[in-house]
Design a protein that fits this description.
Helix content: 55-70%
Radius of gyration: 18 Å
CATH architecture: Orthogonal Bundle
Strand content: under 5%
Order of helices and strands: HHHHH
Number of domains: 1
CATH class: Mainly Alpha
Largest sheet: none
Distance between the termini: 36 Å
Shape: elongated
CATH topology: 434 Repressor (Amino-terminal Domain)
Number of helices: 5
Number of strands: 0
């Protein structure tokens, strides 16, 4: 087994607190939502056989910004960026009501 880093041990200790664990879980879900949107946009780009450079041109964005968006797991794009790319791909971004999660506190 790989030795645990100090950061991993610290996170483990913080996750023992129920409130912290709930907040951490909520943050993970928000990140996953953004990643799902990015994945759909990239799949659409591939389906249309559009290069990242061409997509950047159509979205009126710097090519390096589009490359970074699709190449990193740490992407944190603005809604303006996502809608520009979606528009260039002929897509809309829409908020869809999810089914109620009894574990999710209201207002989150």
């Amino acid at each position: 087994m790989t030795p645990r880093t100090g950061a991993e041990r610290y996170l483990d200790s913080r996750l023992e607190d129920a409130e912290y664990r709930a907040g951490y879980s909520h943050a993970q879900e928000r990140i996953a939502q953004v990643e799902r949107v990015i994945r759909v946009l990239d799949e659409r780009r591939a389906d249309l056989s559009i290069s990242k450079a061409e997509l950047a041109r159509r979205a009126e964005m710097p090519p390096d910004a589009v490359r970074r968006l699709f190449a990193t797991n740490a992407a944190n794009p603005t809604l303006k960026t996502l809608t520009a790319i979606a528009d260039a791909l002929g897509l809309d971004i829409a908020a869809v009501e999810r089914t109620a999660d009894p574990q999710r506190p209201s207002g989150r």
